[in-house]
Amino acid sequence: MSKRYEFHSKLSPEEIYTRLRAYAKPGGASWSGDGTFRYQQEQGCFWLTYTGNWPATGFIPFRARVKKKNSGSLISGGFFLWRSFGRIFLILGLIVFILMQFTGVSAVVGLIMIVLWLLMCAGLIFGVNAILFKERRQTVLEFIQQHLLE
Fold first, then answer.
1. What's the pLDDT score for residue 15?
2. 20 to 30 A Cα–Cα from 121, which one of 9, 10, 64, 88?
3. Which regions of 1-150 does DSSP assign to beta strands (E)?
4. Do the Cβ atoms of 63 and 45 come closer than 8 Å?
5. Mean per-residue pLDDT, 78-97
């Protein structure tokens, strides 16, 4: 389970998104190794990632919800594995499950194998992020503290 972070900002949600556009570049996680911050904005939410100085894919972005609170905002979120890779896991799992049905594997055995495979993949991604991308996570949190709180 990933840690949940909460930041209390003096800025309004609109000002937070304005700052994101000013200090980070729009784009996906495929931008890697250029040392920039990348973000994507959705309704009331954003995700933020740091590309680092060397190309590496698999970094879990910071996903946050922004809510107006008193005269400022509350930014709450975290580095959530299932929100980042859950759809990919589900699609790959379904494809492999369907292919297994053509090979004569029973549905129960196939389902158990897929669940175990997904848990192994999730554990690998989580472990790699905890070990190799610790600095990137810290850099993203520092970005939020420096640019989005006041």
1. 93
2. 64
3. 4-9, 25-26, 37-42, 45-50, 62-69, 72-78
4. yes
5. 79
Distance between CA atoms of 140 and 78, rounded to whole angstroms?
Answer: 10
> What integer pLDDT is reported at residue 146 of this predicted model?
93
Helices (H) and strands (E) in the chain, counts: 4, 6
Total number of residues shown for the chain: 150
3-state helix, strand, coil in the chain (%, to 5): 50, 25, 30
Round to whole Å and give the CA distance between 55 and 5: 26
Rounded CA separation 140/146 (Å): 10
> Which range, of 3-12, 32-41, 50-59, averages the lowest pLDDT?
50-59
Assign 84 a pLDDT band (cuts: 50, 70, 90).
Answer: low
Name which of 55, 69, 76, 79 is nearest 139 in CA terms. Answer: 79
Give the separation between CA 100 and CA 79, rounded to whole angstroms: 32
| pTM of full prediction above 0.90 | no
